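Hi team,

Filling in the usual template for the complex we talked about on Friday. All components are listed, including any nucleic acid strands or ligand strings, so the model treats them as one assembly.

SUBMITTER: L.P.
PURPOSE: interface mapping
COMPONENTS: two
RESIDUES: 423
SEQUENCES:
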Amino acid sequence: MRLEEGWVPVALSSSIEAGTSAGAVVAGSEIVVWRDTGGTAHVWEDRCPHRGMRLSFGFVRGDHIACLYHGWQYDAAGQCRYIPAHPNLDVPQTIKVPLYRVAERYGIVWATASAQALLPDVGAQTDIAPVRSVTIDCPAAAVRAELGLEGPISVITLDGDRLLAAVQTVAPARSCLHLVLLDAAPGPVARQKHHARWAQALRFRLETASEVA
Amino acid sequence: MAQPTLYQYELDEASYRVRLLLSMLRCDYETVAVDMFPGQEHVKPAMLALNPQGTLPVLTQDGLVLHGTAAILMYLARAYDPAGRFLPEAPAVFGPVVTWLGFSETALAPALQARLAAMFAAPGDADALRARARAAFRTMDDHMTMRHFDGQDWFCGDGATLADIALFPAFALSRDYGIDHDAFPALRRWIRRVRALDGFITMPGIPDYH
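RESULT (copied from the run log):
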């Protein structure tokens, strides 16, 4: 699924620490997922309007993200606010990074370019514990087929636990599976590790299958 | 003990591994710049007389001549880190540290080669090298994913060791040869911890956030 088509899972919330940024790719579109020091997540096109540098290579300062190349700083609305080479310049409103809608639900950061799309809903869930995001060199459809998912997100039962599986299309032959544990008991480390190992085994199985194919 | 002398090339990842440790150890040293590219001085008679393997870096001190990055790191830890912070004595930590040091010399060798091929047109099948480097980063990311569940920030033990120093540069520089950090969330978290260590220094390709 592309960002224009609906809400796409782009990271585990726990993987994007406050004051940091990460790059991601959704169906070929490069995005930057970043969290300001106040804790709010942002998803933007991963391109500085100045020279096209990926903003995910840059750094977060408060509620601004700065480009690594020339330090141009953008506020939470994507508006350029400061150009170090012209410290006294009132920065033109036209220097703006395209933003995506962003939401956090079930321990996952979601993004979309669609104004209408409804956020995925699998009912109220409590005691969510992150497992991991695992990148797999195979089509998203193959991941969904292996897990028996109808859409990009589904609750699955695995070795006695309920998990949420959300699949991100990265490229035609690359996907990312985001996995969180639901109804986690206090101190869920053993179960988190168990399912993280399961995800590694799944990656091996799917990649071996796609090599054979 | 006289100051050690490091024969090195500024843009070489292996040389940076040693500079990084020397900086964290607050150890003063002399450097001799060896023109690896385009000069190929590391495989010419003057350097071959010092290190017949033709590899960089080379460390000399009080008549000793050491080569092999992991060996140099271990030597410096023994010489300048008497408390054993970077190379702990306890077998339960020492074992994993030297295992990852071995990994840094073997599994990460394609990563170093991929970078030299990308930046200096050194020989090598770029796609194959990149695939092997990516496989090594996966192994590291899987390991650090598990470590994080246990509340651990470092590859081994409770603090930064030689393992972290030897493994950091290849991943931090991976964009030089076309491997993004997107697919390695546990390593992204880890390199931020390494960057925050006391005595951390950068090299070209590893930005200094300002």
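MY TAKE: The CA atoms of residues 78 and 126 of chain B lie 37 Å apart. Residues 5-80 of chain B form a domain with the Glutaredoxin fold (CATH 3.40.30.10).

Thanks, L.
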